[in-house]
Model the fold of this input.
Amino acid sequence: MSVKPLEDRIVIKPIEPETKTKSGIYLPESAKERPMQGKVVSTGPGKLLDNGKRSTPTVKKGDTVLFGKYAGTEIEIKSTKHMILRESELLGVIEG
Done:
């Protein structure tokens, strides 16, 4: 099963935060926050503009992106958690 997003939506696989701090302390499950970074799995064709053309998505498959803590909708694909959100909900692209 695969999901092809529509319009300006993007499917992202969240990157889980570290379970251990820099000083070596393991964090309990209750202290973990929702991931705010992820890898782009697929993008939709782009938003339909007023002139009938589509805007090109600014991210592509494989990009690492930042998104808001409560952005998007969580979905499960092949028993793996993913997020689907609009391109406008992205905060930035991590380069390098």
Remarks:
- The CA atoms of residues 13 and 80 lie 8 Å apart.
- The first strand starts at residue 9 and ends at 14.
- The two ends are 31 Å apart (CA to CA).
- Residues 9-16+30-94 form a domain with the 10 Kd Chaperonin, Protein Cpn10; Chain O fold (CATH 2.30.33.40).
